[in-house]
Amino acid sequence: MAPKATPPGECPQCWEHAHNPRIHRRLKPREDCQQCVNHMRNGCPNLVPKKPSRWW
Q1: What 3-state DSSP class applies to 13?
Q2: Which is nearest to 16 in space by CA: 25, 28, 4?
Q3: Measured distance CA(20)–CA(18) in Å, rounded
Q4: What pLDDT, in 10s, does the model give residues 1-56?
Q5: Cβ neighbours for 20, distance < 8 A, ≥ 6 positions apart
Q6: Helix (H, G, I), strand (E, B), or coil: what is residue 40?
Q7: Region for 15 from its dihedrals, namely left if φ exceeds 0, alpha if ψ lies in -120 to 50, beta otherwise
Q8: pTM exceeding 0.70
């Protein structure tokens, strides 16, 4: 199954970890994903820019 493209304005890592169950499959019950914990503490540094609004 091909991975879904990250929508504009979303962090690629957050998007992948939220929509790909294989990433967290190896974790034991109640075990935290170290990548997710690090990402929550330090924020999302690699956001995909949103498309500019053309409403105005």
Answers
A1: helix
A2: 4
A3: 6
A4: 556 788 877 888 888 888 888 989 999 999 999 988 888 888 877 665 666 777 66
A5: 3
A6: helix
A7: alpha
A8: no
